[in-house]
Recover the amino acids of this structure.
C-alpha cells in the first residue's frame, strides 16, 4: 500500500467520522434537554465543539436555530470530495 493510499484511507475515515458526528450533533439540537457533558453525548460534543465555538461567533443563530453544525457537514463533505472524490487531488496523485 502506498503512502498516498494510506493517507487517503486515514483522511476518508476521519472525514466520514466527523460528518457523522456533526449529523448526530444536528439531531441533538432537536432535543435541548440533552446534557452534552454527560456520556454518551460527551463523545459527540468533545470532537465537534472546537469547530463550532469559533463558527458560532461568525454565524449567529437564524430564527433561534444554530446552523453551524450544518455548515461543518458541508465543509467536511466538500473537503472529502476535493481530496478523495473520484477526481480528488489525492485520488489523482495515487494514479501516477
Amino acid at each position: 500500500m502506498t503512502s498516498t493510499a494510506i493517507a487517503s484511507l486515514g483522511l476518508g475515515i476521519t472525514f466520514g467520522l466527523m460528518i457523522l458526528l456533526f449529523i448526530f450533533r444536528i439531531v441533538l439540537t432537536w432535543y435541548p434537554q440533552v446534557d452534552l457533558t454527560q456520556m454518551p453525548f460527551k463523545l459527540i460534543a468533545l470532537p465537534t465543539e472546537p469547530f463550532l465555538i469559533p463558527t458560532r461567533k461568525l454565524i449567529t443563530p437564524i430564527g433561534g436555530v444554530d446552523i453551524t453544525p450544518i455548515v461543518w457537514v458541508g465543509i467536511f463533505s466538500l473537503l472529502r470530495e476535493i481530496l478523495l472524490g473520484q477526481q480528488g487531488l489525492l485520488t489523482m496523485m495515487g494514479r501516477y
